[in-house]
## 1
Amino acid sequence: MTAFPDPASKPTARRAVTASVRLRHEAGLHARPAVKLTKLAKKFSAKILVAMLPDGPWIDAKSIVKVMATKTPHDALLHFRAEGEDAEAAVLALVALVERDFPDDG
Amino acid sequence: MSENVSLVIVSHSPDIARGTAEMVRQMVGDEVKVAHCGGNPEGGLGTDVQRILEAIEQAWSPRGVAILVDLGGAETNSEMAIEMLPEDRRGRVVLCNAPIVEGSIMAATEASGGASLAEVRATAEELSPVT
């Protein structure tokens, strides 16, 4: 394993970064948390997917319409999967957002 | 970061227009400019081409302006306002075929990430009626 990504490799060929986090927000992934999650995801160039089940279906975490449509309930386990340049930072930031219960300063 | 696409909210009711703009500001933030208008010049329910033009001017962004409307007249008056814009701006203002409140939140969220006008409109319009 090399420390630097092979410039010849396509982003999709890189290993995906994954993480899961319990959604503690009492109302679930309703409008405001969904907006925050999407806005944060958009700050990264990596392709970021989110799912309620470990096997998917995976949806685009940068799509506010799709994220809100999941209607993910309180206590569900959210799974993130990211691929690309800043995938690791993206997943860490998203997990932190959910763990910190979507604070207003975030 | 370059400027984001901005929003104009046009309702028959000034209260709905103001309230929707307030929801956008609270839920999405202020990185997306939002102007709103509603009511006719007599103070009743309705929309007014001149006020829509002023709202477009107020929200103007070189990246473009997405307009969200409620019912019939809001749509035709917004179309008329777009036609009355100077030629160099006309092509950068679009009407979104989406519910006014939900569409505004979706459009603003998309715009906040620096999306293009076409992407902002597509996101607002991606919302389909609940079946």
## 2
Amino acid sequence: MSTYTLNINGKTQAVDVEPDTPLLWALRDTLGMVGTKYGCGLGQCGACTVHLDGVPTRSCVLPVSSLGKQKITTIEGIGAKAQHPLQQAWQELDVPQCGYCQAGQIMTACHLLKQHPKPSDAQIDEAMAGNLCRCATYTRIRAGIHRAAEIAATGKGKK
Amino acid sequence: MKHAAPVSSSRRGFLRATSAGAAFMLGMSAEGVLAAATTMSGGPDFVPNAFIRIGRDGRVTLISKQPEIGQGIKTSLPMVIAEQLEVPWRDVRIVQADLDTARYGPQGAGGSTSTPTNYENFHRLGAAARMMLVQAAAESWGVPVAECAADKGAVDHAASKRRLTYGALVERASKLPVPEASLVVLKDPSTYTLLGTRVGGVDNAAIVSGQPLFGIDVRLPGMLYAVYAKCPVFGGKPVSANLDAIKAMPGVKDAFIVAGTPNLNGLRPGVAIVATSTWNAIRARRALEVQWDEGDGAGHSWADFTAQARAAASKPGATSVRKDGDVAGALSKSAKVVEAAYSYPFISHASMEPQNCSAWFRPDGTLELWAPTQNPGSGQALVTSTFGIPKEKIQLHIIRSGGGFGRRLSSDFIVEAAAIAQKVAAPVKLTWTREDDLQHDHFRPGGFHFLRGGVDAQGKAVAWRNHFVTFANRVEREGKSVLAPGSGGNLSGDEFPGRWLDNCELEQTALECRVPMGPWRAPGSCVFAWVFHSFIDELAHAGERDPLEFRMELLGNRDIVPGTGERGQPYSVARMKKVLSVAAEQAGWGKKKFARGQGQGIAFHFSHRGYVAQVAEVTVSKDGKLKVDRVVVATDIGSQIVNLSGAENQVEGSVIDGLSTMMYPALDIEKGRIVQSNFHDYPLLRMPDTPAKIEMHFVKSDYPVTGLGEPALPPLAPAVCNAIFAATGKRVRELPLSKVDLSWS
């Protein structure tokens, strides 16, 4: 076991784990940050998506020992009070069904909006293709991203 | 959303507010939370029944008794109470109930039954409480009840312009008798302000901010983490394993063989590994070497099943499930006879949250369970029958599930967690890996249909014969060994067009297998609708008829067609014709011109008390790539949509789930094992394949309100396949579609 110092959501956190431990399990079991979800363990479904220096990354296949000083952002770090434009839009449009994949969807969408503040449907389809939703909330995710772009641009969400 | 979410949608927010043990995040019982609430609000609450609690501070807490699996029941059923209780939705707090059927009544979520079995009663519960509050206000003012009215969490006396909040009425209302059911006055539906509007899910804020919510998120003090390896061949069991080597691995606390039982739906034998983290358990699992006794399931293969089915097709079916008229005679006189074989594979449920369960077995013999389950009562009963732990010593917390689709009606993961917990002196969370989840499901059975049908010279359907070859497990029932077809693998004689055609023969042959099977969203209907509405389309085409007109003629002019079999349901022809005509009209059926490679298809199905018709519009490129451009859905689930947003979510989800399931997933079986293991070889639909437009129309009818978790799924596959035929002339008779060549020239 070794101690790894991680920069998570702007805070420095030490975890004592085996070097091969994926970030996903360090977050969930060691640090108790369970917003990041286990879906496949193979980087296939996107439920475990976090940002590494702002870039969406699959935490289920990312050994803690491979991390340096990169800034890790999890769903808990983008808006604990659910006020990020994506979080607002998701609630306004009632996007979730079971909700299990939505943290990963939001993390991926967050990066898309940074690259394309006003994305087209085609850009959304391309960016979001790595995130599975078994309840098939895809039409509302699309609408939610458009709405979040609008909220971000105008600063106005519905209460 | 028109209505904001309730202030605090879960017990967690409340626990934070009361600083009552953060370690127990998801660990406290609903009643514990409510008792704590009572002490906070300055005296006993008004508790007119098990589902409503109003504090002296005016706080309204409603209990959600059903498991939430993404179907939205935790939002919709409390809405019914809130409507009758006249409380603003934003002021309501929802708490998930634990399993306690004596207190709450049945608590299973399956078969789209949560709404129809609770809807009327929930109206009465809310209305009775409202009447008591109104009476309390009237008594305190000394005015007639008829002069008082409930409004937004308070009671008004308009004549004197006085108003008392519910909180102020708690003491007096608590002393009043609960009115008899026959005296409860319900609101006129035309005055509803909440039901029928779009309301966001009560857990949405927690979902989008990553708060602990799901079974897999449960954390308990000193918790250990387990994985459980089962024989890859169904019915097999472990003989020995390298347990000493496993126990020496990092973080591993224990490893042991669980003998299990022969029941495919019970505790299957396996090897448990318990560790200090999920990953430590998974790592050890990868080093696990087990000598398995594979049993006689090792001979199974999909290729062999297919050969057996084809051989069965040339013989009469083992059982007759319907025999009306003279099919052979009618076929011999038909102007045209169509013969076709349809087949579909075994598939998995693949909920995004893999199966898991937390369990804590204490020295006093009590067992506490935290289960993301659709079927908590059945899970508790299985634990009792397997280990002899009496019901009263088992406490089961119903935790939100990351998808259900019928998978969590089976309780294998609960009984496995209970088995492991009894060997571990700490709370333990069992997590299935994705591979476990995909390969040890209770699968939707595959099936084969061998059909013959005839139309007369006017192109009217006159005869229908189907020999359905399905799968069955051998089980003990009342001391006898019998073959039980898998859930959804048993054809009812009442499946349309049975009951409609004078000449109709339905036969069934079950192939014995060890593959565990279970209900998969709209069991039976999810595949029968595809087969039968595709074949109806074939007959329409043979008769040179318009597919809609052919169906309308087939449905005929009877009003209610009674059920005939043991599972028979009365079928309203009028309701089905109405949704069919609405879907056709909204889609512009028969009025649009399509270029080659494009077309429309239509289908309808009655399942789980719901009437649904769909029209799909597709484009198939010359090289055979399918794009679903538009789906129009007309749905009749009775007189009232409870939560319009939730209903739309269920319809959209069902349409896309239906499309996903017909396009991609298939399980191969070789040497008794499932070949596929994860999402790389078991693909599901992703966003780029999502239809651009799904248009939903809810047809209100004067019938009881029914559920929507399932009925909108079955018609999708035949509507799309019939559209593919219209576009290309290619008839899809085998699923998944990704294996079918749709190219045209």
